[in-house]
Amino acid sequence: MNHLIEWLNKLSASEAEAEFRKCCGSQAWAQAMAASRPFTTEEELLAAADDASASLTDQDWLQAFRAHPKIGEQKAAAGQTSQEANWSAHEQSGMQAAATDTIARLASGNREYEAKFGFIFIVCASGKSSDEMLSLLNDRLDNDPETELRVAAGEQQKITRLRLEKLLS
To answer: Tell me: the pLDDT tens digits for 48-78?
Structure first.
């Protein structure tokens, strides 16, 4: 058994929830994960994460989204631990080489997106350039709110999986 899985299994429920909230900002998801312990393998933990995600309500997803900074920004509305902030910065590393015009267009697009959908633009930014993120944002502005919430939830699940893998490494 992975020694980090053993460590997660030994934490109190509240300590485990705090660790899981670093991966997904939904309290319901973190509680479900803490209650799913003990895990014996990473695969079992990832399957539990998928099961917990499947049970989330729209409000749970919105809570998870608030734990992220907007693309191109560094502070999340809900606040972040230093570990979460470091993960976000690494995930958004494609923004480091962004042209000034792209940054301005992303900021404008973020405002338009949030006004239309009521939550920030969520994308699994790992490995994506600023231009790719801008293109995805513009494409997703055409979605209806219900579709976009599902798309954003899928992106959150990708982020959650990456962060669980980081937590276990």
So the answer is: 999 999 999 999 999 999 998 888 766 555 5
19, 26, 49, 68: which one is catalytic?
A: 68
Please say whether the dihedral angle defined by the alpha carbons of residues 165, 160, 94 and 147, taken in this order, is positive or negative: positive
- Position 146: which residue type? E
What does the alpha-carbon distance between residue 89 and residue 126 come to, in Å, rounded to a whole number? Answer: 10
Q: Is the peptide bond before 145 cis (omega within 30 degrees of 0)?
A: no
**Residue 90 is among the residues annotated as catalytic for this protein:** no
The model carries a pTM of 0.88
Q: Residue 24, SS3?
A: coil
Kindly report the length of the chain: 169
CATH number of the domain enclosing 17: 1.10.3330.10
Please give the tally of structural domains in the chain.
1
List Cβ neighbours of 97 (8 Å cut-off, separation of 6 or more). Answer: 129, 130
Structural domain range at position 71:
3-167
Q: What is the DSSP string of 41-90?
A: SHHHHHHHHHHHHHT--HHHHHHHHTTSBPTT-S-BTT---HHHHHHHHH
